[in-house]
Write a structure and sequence with these properties.
The structure is a single chain. With 187 residues, the chain is α/β, with parallel strands linked by helices. It is built from 8 helices and 9 strands. The chain has helices at 26-38, 51-65, 68-72, 74-80, 89-100, 121-129, 146-151, 170-182; strands at residues 3-8, 12-13, 19-20, 43-47, 83-86, 105-109, 118-119, 134-139, 154-156. The chain has a 7-stranded parallel beta sheet, sandwiched between helices. A two-stranded antiparallel sheet has the order 2-3. Helix 1 packs across helix 4, helix 1 packs parallel to helix 8 (170-182) and helix 6 (121-129) crosses helix 8.
Length: 187
């Protein structure tokens, strides 16, 4: 499987739909690393241009890979080893391209429907099963900036729960989405 995950902290929207760089949260790093390891993701890119946020993430990663956390919880170490800090989405895509020898298919996630380039979970699962290199984008704050969505090859269908409410944390949404596209039930 040639699946990569990127959590973008820039460019994303704030609640007033202004483009911002959001703060890194340690829970996101832990949980998305563990999720990525559990589902066989090759690399989890934490994308932020902010140097202070990169330093924070680096401190956490070092704690779990070479610090006390490495011996305290080797399972967490194995997951956190998947994390790569990138200053931009373009840097992450270039890194995947260097590893895979081809530009990955970029699949963005969003809480709203995008008819022109929408992709169902089943189709995403088939693409990943076909061994095509794919980078799956998740946004923080109030979601990925529209430019990211327009430049993506596809935008995954939103999570529909039947209630009309779909403002999930990125950790919850990522878990649901990865399960839906990788689970044997969908492929």
């Amino acid at each position: 499987m040639r699946l990569y995950v990127a959590l973008l902290h820039y460019p994303v929207y704030n609640k007033n739909y202004k483009t911002i760089a959001s703060a890194v949260t340690t829970f996101d790093i832990h949980d998305l690393a563990r999720l990525s390891k559990s589902y066989g993701v090759k690399r989890f890119f934490l994308v932020t241009p902010l140097e202070d946020q990169q330093r924070l993430a680096r401190r956490l990663i070092e704690h779990w890979i070479t610090g006390y956390g490495a011996t305290y919880n080797p399972d967490r170490r194995a997951a956190v080893e998947l994390v790569t800090i990138s200053a931009s989405l373009d840097d992450a895509i270039k890194e995947v391209e260097a590893v895979e020898g081809e530009k990955p298919c970029v699949v963005a996630t969003d809480a709203s429907k995008h008819n022109a380039r929408s992709m169902a979970y089943k189709e995403a699962g088939k693409m990943i099963a076909s061994e095509r290199a794919v980078i799956l984008l998740f946004g923080t704050a109030w979601g990925l900036e529209k430019r990211v969505l327009h430049e993506a090859d596809y935008v995954l269908d939103p999570i529909e729960c039947g209630t009309g409410y779909n403002h999930l944390s990125v950790r919850s949404a990522a878990a649901i989405i990865l399960d839906r596209i990788i689970s044997r039930n969908w492929n």
